[in-house]
Design goal:
about 210 residues, Spore Coat Polysaccharide Biosynthesis Protein SpsA, Chain A, 7-stranded mixed sheet, 7 helices, globular
Length: about 210
């Protein structure tokens, strides 16, 4: 299926506030941009993804992602669900068969897992990758792009499952560490070093982008 991938990214000054005990604002912003660049690179390497869209209210983010090969869309009103709704409109207008929502804080994301998610997606269906706590949603594939409304936020996995049931579409869940592992807390930063055998140092925030 011809797929539009979208990465929602919030205003940099507000990004990753839960990492404040470990990283100052400048380092948090640098981390967000590094993760965004890597996510774009991964998605652009997936043959099924025709285009990568970044929805953000931040002009600095929009400028950066354009240099990295993604299409920026400036968001008038903040909010993750609003960002996804904007992407749904773009996908429908452009005639995409599917929309792939990938959160931009997955340091272990790999093309093979994105391809697996898209391979599981049926013409009227949803593929959901939960976070490692089993309550959130880190990846959401939708066919058609507006088969359900996005329900990111608290207990989003449960809300997306309920929406799928109401829409009477196929729902498949994909449990994989690279899709489940997100960077939200200082403990997550420590864990990524353990999971990668020390390669987590690549997420140092004092190196140039």
């Amino acid at each position: 299926m011809r797929t539009l991938a979208v990465i929602p990214i919030q205003q940099l000054e507000h990004a990753k506030s839960r990492l404040a005990p470990a990283l100052n604002p400048t380092k948090r912003q640098s981390l967000v941009l590094k993760l965004a660049r890597r996510t774009i690179e991964v998605l652009r390497s997936v043959p099924e993804v025709a285009e990568v869209l970044v929805v953000t209210p931040d002009a600095q983010v929009a400028s950066a992602v354009a240099r990295w090969g993604a299409r920026p869309l400036l968001q008038a009103q903040p909010g993750l669900n609003r960002a996804v709704c904007s992407a749904q409109s773009v996908a429908l207008h452009a005639g995409y068969a599917a929309l792939l929502v990938v959160l931009g804080d997955l340091p272990l994301l790999a093309a093979q897992h994105v391809q697996t998610a898209l391979a599981l997606l049926e013409p009227r269906g949803i593929v959901l990758a939960p976070d490692r706590r089993g309550t959130g949603t880190n990846l959401l594939a939708l066919a058609p792009p507006n088969v359900i409304a996005p329900a990111f936020g608290s207990e989003s996995r449960r809300h997306h499952r309920l929406a799928a049931a109401r829409a009477r579409c196929t729902l498949r869940e994909l449990w994989a560490l690279p899709l489940a592992f997100d960077l939200d807390t200082p403990d997550d930063l420590a864990d990524v070093r353990l999971v990668t055998g020390g390669e987590g140092d690549k997420w140092r925030t004092d190196e140039p982008l």
